[in-house]
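Wed. Picked up where I left off yesterday with Thyroglobulin. The coffee machine is broken again, so keeping this brief.
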Amino acid sequence: PTPCQLQAEQAFLRAVRSLISNSSTPPTLSSVYIPQC
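Structure written out below (tokens, as returned):
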């Protein structure tokens, strides 16, 4: 994988964890942001 893909994966995992921990709040596009590689 390229560094960009690795960075996108880490950002995605953080977004998933934040959505799980804040399940009471609706997901937003910014929290599920995926960089264009």
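Quick read: The two ends are 11 Å apart (CA to CA).
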